[in-house]
Specification:
The complex is a heterodimer.
Chain A: E1 4-5, H1 24-35, E2 42-43, H2 50-53, H3 59-68, H4 93-112, E3 118-121, H5 142-152, E4 157-161, H6 168-173, E5 180-187, E6 211-216, H7 222-240, E7 244-248, H8 266-283, E8 288-291, H9 298-312, H10 323-330, E9 352-353, H11 356-375
Helix pairs in contact in A: 1-9, 4-5, 7-8, 7-11, 8-9
Chain B: H1 3-6, E1 14-15, H2 20-30, E2 34-39, E3 42-48, H3 49-56, H4 87-97, E4 101-106, E5 109-115, H5 116-127, E6 134-140, H6 146-156, E7 161-168, E8 174-180, H7 185-194, E9 198-201, E10 207-208
Parallel strand pairs in B: 1-2
Antiparallel strand pairs in B: 2-3, 4-5, 6-8, 6-9, 7-8
Classes of the chains: A alpha/beta, B alpha+beta.
Amino acid sequence: MVPVIHHPDYRAYCFGPDHPFSPLRQQLLWSLLDALGQAPEAIEPAPATRADLETVHHPDLIDRVEAASSGTPPPDAERFGLGTPDVPVFAGMDAAARLLVGGTVHAVQHVLDGHARQVLQLGGGLHHARHRLAAGFCVYNDLSVAIRRATSAGRRVAYIDIDVHHGDGVQWIHYEEDTVLTISLHEAGQYLFPGTGHVHELGRDFGTGFSFNVPLQPGTQDDSYREAFERVVPQALDWFRPDLLVVQCGADAHWQDPLADLLLTTHTYAWLFRALRALADEYAGGRAVFTLGGGYDPDATVRVWALLYLILQDLELPEALPAAWLAEWQSHPALQGVTLRERLHDAPRRFAVHDAEAIARQNREVCRRLMEMAVRYWY
Amino acid sequence: MLVRDIMHREVRTVDAGTTLADAYRLQQEYHLRHLPVLREGSLVGVVTDRDLRLATSVLHPTPFPDDARVEQVMATPPITATPLDPVEEAARLMRAHKIGCLPVLDGPDLVGIVTGTDLLDALIRLSGAGRPSGRLAVRLEDAPGRLAALMTAVADRRVHAHSVLSYPADDGRIVVILRVNTLNTHALAAQLRAEGFAVTWPPETPWSP
């Protein structure tokens, strides 16, 4: 059994009813696992301390988040990315964000202490938060604080980010470090937030060659995505030889996602989760921490994350979702306009995209260019 | 953006009497392709690695010996920029003359040099994403107030534009590229479309569902 980290108060990380990064997604997931008779006993983490946060964040940012926790942004909040459309302030913001950080730190500590080889943190994945800047729905960077915990203990961490957005916060925080390898697959920055994640972002100083970016074309489908993953990730792990993987499992590269433009089906997610476990076994002694992340279509996101949970626990995948669960949520006022699908998996499909072959060709070329540049630092 | 904002201020030069071999060695040592040539402290020409290679090539009808002087093979008079020229003027000069660098003169003094690489860097900076941001492309009628209307519509939603880039489209309209401080550009695009703006990125549905 892979231990699960979760706390009921995770739902306090909420930017308001109209904001896409909604705690409803976790609530849906939890109730689905319950309806499937698989609800785990979760380990409840403690919030991260200020000292933990300061291992990656500037005190000025933490001060502003603390001040904003009254619900009113301090006068210079926008300089720190707070009080913006993406990161509006809310009462209790600091405590809510710290609890998510605490969860990811706990997950990594659990692995470091040898209590488990793999841990699932059912929350977190706030990969856009930077040293001195909140951004893209992310206040504090739980991933980087947890990674820092591992590197402080002398471990080498490979961070793999399958969220549709570039994992910029994690990349920049560890950009000059040779103990952290970051790999991000995402929709290319010329099309999607945060605008970075180009192949030439390879790291700096000691960290040169330790940052891998796979920017993919809008309209990328299952086959091309899997091909890109296989061209880059196993080779990078083979070079780096991590002690531990930290994986951000954003579900927003799914074709239903309203915020981005990739076209993955649930089948590729299932494939990815199995591939990531196999890579952990092969290159990291089986050690891996999985977190959630983006994912803004409630129907797709809950099915992707249910797959994550079930695959990590080696459970059989049900074909249909429980009728009672569907009935309960389909009529829920928060899901107005959302149609919940009856099956866990999408029907296998290809999309009629303009010149899919050109998209696949471009993705292949980008991988080739990346590996050609990276190989110089590894031989 | 002006030439003085992107130029290199430390310029390596050679004297008009320097031999081709010495000039070549200097270029190799410092990875330079262009050397301004001075005579008694005044700029009189530019010599490039290509000038040196062509002048000494065995294919040249009367190749120069390697102890010839750079003033015999340099381009003269030099084409130059001033620190207050806009970068687009520098680009136009280099494009028109098909040359790779411009020595920068402030009055009689050589104060810097701009190369093609510096202009590429400037292009990257002009189009770049300095802060985490989403990208929005809008085709606007090339008429007074249209850009202002777009910026107002964006600001009304408390969205901030980090950068604005525009260029003329084929149909007489202008394409405006905004980098905005939000991840949710699809929602913003839908709202702008509802107000009549022709948003070309992000798309509505580029694939059939």
